[in-house]
Design goal:
Layout (H helix, E strand, L loop, with lengths): L11 H45 L3 H29 L1 H20 L4 H29 L3 H32 L3 H4 L1 H12 L15 H24 L4 H23 L7 H4 L2 H31 L4 H18 L2 H9 L2 H17 L9 H29 L5 H29 L3 H22 L10
Helix pairs in contact: 1-2, 1-4, 1-5, 1-7, 1-11, 1-12, 2-3, 2-4, 2-8, 2-16, 3-4, 3-7, 4-16, 5-12, 5-13, 5-15, 8-9, 8-16, 11-12, 11-14, 11-15, 11-16, 11-17, 12-15, 13-14, 13-15, 14-15, 14-17, 16-17
């Protein structure tokens, strides 16, 4: 009778590697869902704007605030959210952001009037501001190897692309029932992301340092003043007292912010980081890409419904080819960056977006919808190619302890671009004799800006190998 075989002993390092790999997959799944629901919410609202306007008897200025109330707080709090993420840990910050976002989504769905809706959108934006840098810092922590991290970021970006693809169609479909449903759809997704996050390990904390209240409050005042001035210019003109006052607040608050970051003991955004070439160029690229993409989505959502007479569902379906192709393009960014270097997908993506924006200005106002649908495709796919590549390049260039802050700066620039695009383009449309004339002026402005950052992309250096 043979003796029983001795149990196979696994080395502690093997168990640790397996646990780490499992935790990394949970972290990626949670980060992907968080970015998905945040992007879904940003785009699902645009298609429902006419329905919201009819329900609350609101004009274009009120509808701009429904969009920009979210993006304003998103942009204003991203800077400190990145810093807070580095201090309290990526997992903890990501969970807090998800809770705030989910609760605010429910408040949006139950809003009794436009003021409450805009207020709830502000809170939503605050939660989303934490989700983005915390999700990227979570990936930086879960995937220390740069090659695996680049693939993880591409998958994370694909979550945003899928959210972008689903947003317009789902917004149009749910608006046929009630525009309130577009906010309630966030609840199950947020709860699932929280469950996935609970399966990951707690993130390490940095040494506690005082919070930079001066920097945060001045950032909110500067961005709020600038956005308010841009939106109100379309309604009352640039010379109106409240517009001039808002611009003055933006300038003074902006000066206070930069002084506080230069001289403060614990700045939330060290100016040494902003002086880094990769950081400055990456932020500029992110700004220009969001001006083009979100500006186009806002304008064409209104154009297709108000000028062409499409239903909300038909409008959502018109965006579907662009957003679906964008979802397929995003994963190729990491492969392109590895094979040709990061500048190739970054520059190619920007050139594609600029081309699409210019081509959208060629047809006449009576052009068939299918032609506009085709011309939108380069805009979305260009952004889908460039954004993951520039994000991956930036995270490779910064140390791990600054990943949250750096991603916060990048995404602040992106959201400021989106907020100002809605505000400025809405004002341009209001000031022109026809909607389509204002649309053309806006899209050509966005194309010129993207071409400028394309030229600046030539100065980007390859990522360092760690």
């Amino acid at each position: 009778m043979s003796s029983p075989a001795a149990p196979t002993r696994r080395s502690p390092s093997t168990d640790a590697d397996r646990a780490s790999g499992t935790g990394a997959r949970w972290a990626l799944a949670a980060a992907l869902l968080g970015f998905f629901v945040m992007t879904l919410d940003a785009l699902i609202v645009n298609v429902a704007l006419p329905e919201i306007g009819r329900d609350f008897d609101s004009g274009i200025t009120g509808l701009q605030w429904v969009v920009d109330g979210y993006t304003l707080m998103f942009a204003a709090l991203l800077l400190s959210a990145g810093s807070v993420t580095d201090r309290i840990g990526a997992r903890q910050a990501f969970g807090a952001g998800l809770v705030v976002f989910t609760v605010a989504s429910a408040a949006c769905g139950f809003a009794p009037n436009l003021g409450v809706l805009v207020g709830a959108r502000l809170v939503q934006g605050a939660g989303a501001a934490v989700i983005v840098p915390a999700s990227l810092a979570l990936l930086r922590e879960a995937f220390p190897d740069s090659a695996r991290r680049a693939r993880a970021i591409s998958i994370w970006a694909m979550g945003g692309s899928v959210g972008g693809a689903a947003g317009p169609v789902l917004g149009g479909l749910l608006s046929e029932i009630s525009w309130r449903m577009i906010f309630f759809v966030n609840l199950p997704v947020g709860l699932l992301a929280l469950f996935l996050l609970s399966r990951t390990r707690r993130s390490p904390r940095r040494a506690d340092t005082p919070f930079d209240w001066t920097g945060q409050l001045s950032a909110v005042a500067a961005m709020g003043g600038l956005t308010f001035a841009a939106i109100e210019t379309g309604a009352v003109g640039l010379a109106a007292p409240r517009v001039l006052l808002a611009l003055l607040v933006a300038v003074v608050a902006g000066a206070v912010f930069f002084i506080s970051q230069a001289r403060g003991r614990n700045p939330m955004v060290p100016l040494s980081l902003l002086r880094e070439r990769t950081m400055a160029i990456s932020a500029s690229i992110g700004f220009a890409l969001n001006v083009g993409f979100y500006g186009m989505i806002f304008l064409l959502s209104l154009y297709l419904q108000q000028e062409q007479g499409l239903s909300p569902l038909a409008t959502g379906l018109a965006f579907l080819p662009m957003t679906l192709l964008t979802a397929f393009v995003s994963p190729t960014a990491a492969w392109s960056a590895r094979k040709f270097g990061p500048r190739v997908p970054i520059i190619t993506g920007q050139l594609a977006m600029a081309t699409g924006l210019v081509l959208l200005c060629v047809p006449q106002a009576s052009a068939p919808t299918w032609l506009m649908v085709l011309l939108m495709i380069p805009v979305g796919t260009g952004g889908g190619l460039a954004v993951p590549a520039v994000t991956s390049l930036l995270l490779d260039r910064v140390p791990a302890e600054r990943a949250g802050t750096a991603s916060g700066v990048l995404n602040t620039a992106r959201q400021v671009g989106g907020a100002l695009a809605v505000a400025v383009f809405g004002a341009l449309v209001a000031q022109h004799a026809t909607f389509f004339h204002g649309l053309r002026t806006s899209l050509l402005t966005a194309a010129a800006l993207v071409l400028v950052t394309t030229a600046a992309s030539l100065l980007l250096r390859p990522a360092r190998q760690r």
